[in-house]
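User: I'm putting together notes for a lab meeting next week and I want to include a structural view of one of the chains we've been expressing. I don't have a solved structure, so I'd like a prediction I can at least talk through. The sequence is below, exactly as it appears in our construct file.
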Amino acid sequence: MVKVVEDIFGIATNPFTKQAQVIRRYTMTNTNRLSVAVIQLGATIQSIQVPDAYHQLSDVVLGFDDVAGYTKYRNYHFGCTLGRVSGVVGNGEFIMDERRVVVSKNHHGQKHQINGGFVGFDQVIWDLEMKRPDGVTLRHVSPDGHEGYPGTLKVLLHFTIDDDNRFFIQIEATTSQTTPVNISNQIIFNLAGQTTGIKGIFDHQINIEAMETMETSAPDELPTGRFRNVNDSVYDIRLPVFMGDRVRQFEQKPVKGYDVCFALDKEFDAIKTRYVGRFLHPDSGRYMEIFSNQPCVKLTTGNCFPQEPLGEPPILGKRCTRYWQHCGFSLQLLNYPDAVNQPDFPRIFINPGELYFHETIYHFGVQESWKCCADPEELEALGEEPLRKPMA
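Assistant: Thanks for the context. Below is the predicted structure for the 392-residue chain, given as structure tokens.
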């Protein structure tokens, strides 16, 4: 049984009305003590509390205890919803219905657009559509022409948990005119607990079942439309590897960690929700399995966070935690970035009468530490369940 509690999180300025507005938080808790807290500002995942193998609760999401933190560090997108179009729109323009559409440019010296423009979904104060027995639904109506996009876009975000420790993010959108839609959410995780920093992150075992990554071109890192096989590279994480071992291999590279889009499914079918990957912190026993109907997952490892050895001031997060480089990893499930300019990428345009639908599921659990080192054959011989179970 799920319980939903509402409280006041703070006050923020509405970017459309320029008026101060109360920001509410909705906390969903199940019978296993898993809880997820969502705030209206940016439809942001503010907290996820998960018990470990020893029944101790920890918050596994980086973020802030007040509105001021989310406002000050909004460019890091802690836990927020991104759109209308997540990722980059090359040169801030695209061709649609044989006409050129120019959108706002807020990236790389205002050459491109990223994450919906200057006032994207991450800065919107979302309305409460309904409070449900198992979660909440938030609503936003993006007006025609906002940030250059055609059509009035009506968006519903359904946040749900169940007693199987699954957290569902389901996104629906309809439009009055043909328009591109690619909505995602960027949660920054640390399954060891958000206070444990780089040591907790580097102890993670990670696995994403993807054979290719998206190729990008320097210096703006725009997608080229081509893909690279992960074989014999640091990006091959089809079998579990330790996060620390892999991130250290980036020390001599320009980017100091993962900042990559994995191609999951080129034959995109929004009806199919498939397994994406698994993240495990062996010491606590916490694991998280990801399922989604989106064809791409972007993995980053906090590379742009302040660097302690250089004396840069830290990001001050929840419980006065200092966030430094590599103290969290973020996951974005989305369609391919810059798909508006890449005809071979899955289509992101929707027409009037069509429904955009995005589903991502985070399944949390715990396992005994000895299972982390056992192979499937050993587990089977002991009559234990495999480390990953198919979704029901």
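A couple of points you could mention at the meeting. Residues 60 and 133 are 24 Å apart (CA to CA). DSSP finds four helices and 30 strands in the chain.

User: Perfect, that's what I needed.
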